[in-house]
Amino acid sequence: MRKNSIKNVRVNTEVQKELSNIIRNEIKDPRIAPMTSVVTVEVAPDLKTCKAYISVLGDEKAQKDTMAGLKSAEGYIRRQLAGNLNMRATPQIQFILEQSIEYGVAMSRKIDEVMNK
Asked: pTM surpassing 0.85?
């Protein structure tokens, strides 16, 4: 399976949906910020590993706490993912902090400030 094959895109989409659902509805860790979203997911073609890019709206402490909470809940998340998806292998998840949404919000604020002056 090539990296950009239709099957890989479908697997990425399904894993992203399930990860979002699990993080939003099933994890009760208070360290995880309520404004946490899964930006994108890259599952390796052999289905062994998965990189989940996570965006956290909040300050740096909230981001660090959320990443620590997700890291500690990794086993639970993987077990839930295995139960919800019918895949040959459940990938090992690596959470990566993505700051593009926060950057976009900050740039939008700066543009608004310049336009108002």
From this structure: no
